[in-house]
Amino acid sequence: MATGILNIKGRIWWIVALVVLCLVPFVLPRFYVYLLSIILLFGLFAMSNNFPLGFGGIYQLHHAVFYGVGAYGTALVITKSGLSPWIAFIVGPLIAAFLGLVMGIICIRLSKLYFGMLQISLGSLVWAVVYRWYSFTGGDDGIHGISVPDIISSYKGAYYFTLIVTGISLYVLYRLLKSPYGSVLQGIRDNPVRSSMIGVNVKKHQLLALVIAGFFAGVAGTLFVVVDNTVFPDMMFWTLSLEAVIMCLLGGWLTFLGPMLGAALIVIIRTFVSTYTLYWALVLGIIFTLVIFFLPNGVLGWIEDAVKRKPNLAEAKE
Amino acid sequence: MLQVKSLTKSFDGFKAVNNANLDVQNGEIVAVIGPNGAGKTTLFNLISGILKPDSGQVLFKGDDITGLPPYEICRKRISRSFQVVNVFNRLSIFENTQISILSRQKKTWNLFTPSSSLAVNETNELLKNVGLYEKRDHISGALSHGDRKVLEIAMALGGNPEFLILDEPTAGMSPEETTRCIDLIKGLREKYGLTILFCEHDMEIVFGIASRIMVMVRGGTIVQGTCEEVRCNEAVQDAYLGGSDVCLM
Amino acid sequence: MDVTGVLNQVFVGLSRTVILFIVSSGLSLILGVLRIPNVAHGSLYMIGAFMAFTLSKLFGGGDMGFWMALIGAPLAVALISLVAERGIFQYLYEREHLMLILLTFAFSLVFGDLVKIVWGGEYKSVPVPYMFQGFIPLIGGLPFPLYNLFLLVCGPIIAILLWLLVNKTKIGKIARAAAVDMEMVGAVGINVSWVFASVFVIGCLLAGLGGVLVAPTVSVTLGMDHTLIIEAFLIVIMGGLGNIWGALLGALIFGLSQSLGILIWPQFGIIFPYLAVVIVLIFRPTGLLKATW
Question: What is the CA radius of gyration of chain B?
């Protein structure tokens, strides 16, 4: 049954998308390939944020910390130790996952807004340390010129590496969501009291979601190191976290691929609007306001509703 | 089977449940009645672990379960439904029920087997038993109130309980739905051999299916006994039923 | 580490506390009554500071300029917030917190760019008014800026005014009642919508006021909203949502741990306030004082 998780039609679409994505570097110039890499890794970042947020109902408001810590973890292992970069690529996400566990244990007793605020507070703590620890993290300058293995150091190599890792991560996340654990997590999102009353230890299940989210945010951070060869403290500033949440909502936070779409939209808006005007944030702010008013389920959510004519989930009362 | 001994719970000085005592024997259907605000729902929340009592004890089959978290209590095969519908609104009827069964089978930590291949037969059978099988793919947030109440019961049954707590199972239902729901509860009790504790405002239902009745007033239990005893008890009439006409019926 | 050094940092921290208190009390008011976690609150603070620059310049930059800015800039911010409330926020009171956080974040993006359009990206400085230039000697002979002393006077005055507003005026009483039970207040024939609008505007006015008061002590620049809004949120959460005195207490802890932290460990001084918040929330998950919800 393991492969029966996607129906035939669904699988064909996935394969088509994958083939197109594989051919991109042969068709598009360097800048666009770089941009696509950024979209993929931001998409993974947003989707990992959406795992606890959209599917677990947890106010994961400072997800950038895990992204940044994953990136810094990888960068520091590469630059400060003699270990192979390939090991760094695993260590970075593991550090992020561990941070997810530690912060999760501290925050999980609180719910909703209080959870988010405590997470922001702890995250700001981590940010402040990284920002000031010049001798170790490079302080506000960050670390530049991080060397990665030759095979993925070219822009094409970095792109394919990003594509493969993102693809695997997405598959794992998808399997997780379709597993009993994923069902239970969504149950907790909809109704924690009911979940505990059918025998689910709510906090423990939420904690695992936070660890998983931390890990994949760390993977995204590591991919950024591969693509851009730098890390800097703004990667874990709270504004990036809210941007990630915006990606989730813009694309559709109750859909699997919504955050990826949201990430693509935001990266594209930022890149192309900023070539016309300095004021891309203004455009983004207005677009986002309109989306909240008119498409509360996000773009992909709206498309799904329109296609399937499903009852509007946003109107289903809590 | 279940014994509640001098249970007390107060909120900001207000004693919502005050020295409540209750005894439910195996196989019984016990009704808790009392005016609004008498503390019935609070009592159920205390028994099912959603609230922790200030003092007193809850014993289930001789084990002390006082103050255990809800998920532990559920594993002791006590399930409940809620007065205000409490289901997973964004998930389908099938998924709602399946999650409950998966939880009982301790499969919630299974990370990679697709849910769609697990507990399918059990879920379908349970849905057939409660009459929701035809609507199994409907999103539960969009269901009618009556269906959602029945889904509540299905989810409670998913835990394979011996002891079932129903908090106003027919509240807000139309008369036809109520009749159907009561028949359903009776049928399920036969089928699964359940012991049931429930509260209800509709006296007809209470006297119709309860084997014994407990009366709560202002947080405390004033009488516990058979329907006849309760009907004709003066304290109950004063406090709750409010007149002799009920006794006469 | 000598006593006068510590004392000096205490006074620096207290001056910072005043700014933090003014801004976060406004945020707390809005959160407590309207339930809006207004991320754009920081932008209004920034706009207040930029307005102060413009008004101060318009009136010659001296004492007159400062006083006009002190009155005019908060009013201008209040006007902006009134438009935003009537135009958009009043339709969103029932939305989920998460949506409101993101919506107000979108607003802060818009406000940030509007500031960039109006004032440009350069640093601006607002002169300290003549009458507050110079220093007074503190105990131990340490010179303390007069302007900071002025701030220390402002803080308690605003706290008392706010307390009077919330507890002694009609609108304050209605707002407190509405925070507990909105429908009930509506049912007795009070126009809740306008009460909410007034509370929102007053809260935003406080953000603007904080911006004006901080302007002479810092360089006014884009991005000054980003650090402040997080600090304000943490203060509100730490003190107890919607509780004015909680905001004062939170601001005090935040301001002092910031200034004394630098003394203890110069390099990592900035982590101490966050550490304080974490410790408070671990032991008092819903804040130090009673939250209104």
Answer: 18
* CB-facing half-sphere around the CA of C97: CA atoms within 13 A: 18
Closest CA to C5 of C151, C122, C142, C157: C142
pLDDT digits (tens, 9 = 90+) for C81-117: 999 999 888 887 778 888 888 889 999 999 999 999 9
The stretch A59-72 carries a mean pLDDT of 96
Q: Residue A298 pLDDT more than 70?
A: yes
Residue B190 sits in a domain whose CATH number is: 3.40.50.300
Q: Kindly report the pTM of this predicted structure.
A: 0.89
Q: How many CB atoms lie within 10 A of CB B228?
A: 11
β-bridge pairing B55-60 and B29-33? unpaired
Q: How far apart are CA B47 and CA B148, in angstroms?
A: 23
Span A211-216, average pLDDT: 97
Helix ranges (H only) for chain A are 8-27, 30-54, 64-80, 85-107, 112-132, 134-137, 155-178, 180-190, 192-197, 202-228, 238-251, 258-276, 280-294, 298-308
Q: Strand B78-81 and strand B163-167: pairing?
A: parallel
Torsion sign across C-alpha atoms B78, B84, B85, B89: negative
Of the candidate ranges A72-76, A247-251, C40-44, C136-140, the one whose mean pLDDT is the lowest? C136-140
A34-to-A156, A162, A240, C57 alpha-carbon distances in Å = 8, 10, 20, 46
Residue C101: inside a domain: yes
Rounded average pLDDT over A100-114:
90
pLDDT tens for each residue of C28-69: 999 888 888 899 999 999 999 999 999 998 888 778 888 999
Please compute the mean of the pLDDT values over residues B102-128 and round it to a whole number. 90
Encode burial over A79-117: b for 16+ CB neighbours within 10 A, e otherwise. Answer: eeeeeebeebbebbbebbbbbbbebbebbbebbebbbbb
In a domain, B99, yes or no: no
What string of H, E and C letters represents the secondary structure of A183-241? HHHHHHHHCHHHHHHCCCCHHHHHHHHHHHHHHHHHHHHHHHHHHHCCECHHHHCHHHH
Domain membership flag for residue C122? yes
Backbone angles phi, psi at B197, to 5 degrees: -120, 125
Minimum CA–CA partner of B141 in chain A: A316
Instruction: Give the minimum alpha-carbon distance from A43 to chain C in angstroms, rounded to a whole number.
Output: 18
Chain A residues near any Cβ of chain C (below 8 Å): 59, 61, 106, 109-110, 112-114, 116-118, 120-122, 124-125, 128-129, 131-134, 237-239, 242, 245-246, 249, 278-279, 281-282, 284-286, 288-289, 292, 296
Residue A310, pLDDT > 80, answer no
Per the CB < 8 A criterion, the answer to whether A316 and B142 are in contact is yes
Query: Could you tell me if residue B30 is inside a domain?
Result: yes
Domain count, chain C: 1
Three-state DSSP class for C108?
helix
User: Looking at the domain assignment, is residue C43 inside a domain?
Assistant: yes
User: Residue C271, Cβ neighbours under 10 Å: how many?
Assistant: 22
The answer to whether residue B133 sits within a structural domain is no
Locate A129 and state its tokens.
């340390």
* CB-count burial class (<10 Å; 0-12, 13-18, 19+) for C171: middle
pLDDT for A126: 93
Best mutation target, A50, A59, A60, A117, to test chain C (most C CBs within 10 A): A117
What CA–CA distance (Å, rounded) separates A58 from C165? 36
Q: What is the ipTM of this complex?
A: 0.87
A185 and B108 Cβ atoms separated by less than 8 Å: no
- Tally Cβ neighbours within 10 Å of residue A172: 16
Name all chains with 3 or more CB-CB pairs below 8 Å to chain A.
B, C
Between CA B74 and CA B77 the distance in angstroms is: 5
Query: What does the pLDDT read at residue C247?
Result: 93
Is C260 domain-assigned?
Answer: no
Residues of the domain holding C198: 22-222
